[in-house]
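Methods, example record. To illustrate the input and output format used throughout this study, we show the complete record for Dynein intermediate chain 1, axonemal isoform X5. The sequence lines were provided to the predictor; the line carrying structure tokens was produced by it.
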Amino acid sequence: MFPASTKTPHKQPRKQSISIGRGTRKKDEDSGTEVGEGTDEWAQSKATVRPPDQLELTDAELKEEFTRILTANNPHAPQNIVRYSFKEGTYKLIGFVNQLAVHYTQVGNLIPKDSDEGRRQHYRDELVADSQESAKVVISETENLEEDEEPKELETEPGSQTDVPAAGAAEKVTEEELMTPKQPKEQKLTNQFNFSERASQTFNNPLRDRECQMEPPPRTNFSATANQWEIYDAYVEELEKQEKTKEKEKAKTPVAKKTGKMAMRKLTSLESQTDDITKVSQAAKIVERMVNQNTYDDVAQDFKYYEDAADEYRDQEGTLLPLWKFQNDKAKHLSVTALCWNPKYRDLFAVGYGSYDFMKQSRGMLLLYSMKNPSFPEYMFSSDSGIMCLDIHVDHPYLVAVGHYDGNVAIYNLKKPHSQPSFRSSAKSGKHTDPVWQVKWQKDDMDQNLNFFSVSSDGRIVSWTLVKSELVHIDVIKLKVEGSTTEVPEGLQLHTVGCGTAFDFHKEIDYLFLVGTEEGKIYKCSKSYSSQFLDTYDAHNMAVDAVSWNPYHTKVFMSCSSDWTVKIWDHTIKTPMFIYDLNSAVGDVAWAPYSSTVFAAVTTDGKEKKGQEVQKGPAVEIAKLDKLLNLVREVKTKT
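The corresponding predicted structure is encoded as:
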């Protein structure tokens, strides 16, 4: 037994205090009652505070109820938004307006549970919770150990205190084990020489928005005002037209009326059966040009860059590469008699069709082709007589003057779609009596009227002027063969008429021009003198096919003939300066636009095609010589 004074407990009882909230209530250690702070504030009476500007209402006004209907429509949303409609070509009011009004937005950081990141965070939280539970279990085990060891410590002697630090040492060891982090497992080091990572990551292509917007087509607004007089004039004009049509119908025979009615019925039936394609004609023409340009792209490249390297080894000869071929089924069995490029539109040219054979005269055609569409002509006109020559106006490239085999001249207007010419000569208006071989536009006269000249085999050089809606002619000069005047018994003189074939006007002297004839003569004439020539040149032994002034030198001109020669002249000298013999009849000549000493000539012998059989032998050579001898005999008989 030990004395009571010697029994000292190992641990003293501890005083505990619990605080809840922010220290407003505490538990008394002795009585355990709760004491609250600020109880006086709650006990005070509440007083209403009224603002000074508040309205004073009666009881009836206060009891009155006001009902409001809440809708989902945004009162601040605009109701007059319009947008352009390319389909209808007008601005239209938008019927649906976005009524959503956003009052508050905030970027959140919430992650869906089903996503990969949500699963990873959930797994991480579970690991943390498991580690905390394991730590709590270890702490509870140590406390149980301490409680079990307390009675043993009370029974020990006062002098033996070796067991007391043992419990503290055990407690310290467990705490150190808990505080020390776990060492990670050793990972196998990779080889730094031949290591290859087998992970891969795909590249996400960025999203792209493809949008297009077309420009609206150009539009024009037309507005006009009409008064009573204009309306009355329009009605009178319409009545006059109706009266004229009635008179024409009365003048027709019954058979003509029946045929006309049948033709009108056929036209109306065809119009009702077929669709109107005039609305898409322009678009179809553009698409057709695009298709043809793609088809003939190789030809266009050859036109720009073709060059034959073998030309260096040819002394006086070169090669020609055929590029485009223009043909039309309606122009079959007709000869190409005239060509002319448009002076403004460089890709457009006109072609005249007819026949040089007197026994095969039928019809003619005028076609205009474009290099942009070689498959079909841009414009097409037909005529009753063959077209022998044509010319396009420089300032008005839509006007084309033509000369026919029957002696008529005409003007076609490309702006008017109908096939008939806008102006045409007649027997009453002074048409030629023989084929017209050349026409040429001239400068406008003093009254700003358009005019052109024509030459024909009847020996007349005629000036045609467009006055209002008709052609007015003036005979500039009549060709006469010098020394061919004969007197008849009645005292009259007969002159042999010279047959004009070609002419050309001086580039600087407006009144001066040259005329070539079938007799081989070249006459220098003036627009001011109609009775005599300024000069006469004995140029060729056969018909003069073309004459042309030099575009640079004002004194020099050139002529070609069927006598195989090309001659260059100075108009102040009656003998030629240069003579070129081409061993074949020369049909036409032209100066180069880039040089004063270069010209081109075409002959009638042509070139033989590949695979073409050329007739040879004594009979062919005899026929060639007989043809030449006959031509010389005809010239001698005429002289």
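Annotations derived from this record:
Confidence is low (pLDDT under 50) at residues 1-36, 150-173, 270-274.
The chain is about 25% helix and 25% strand.
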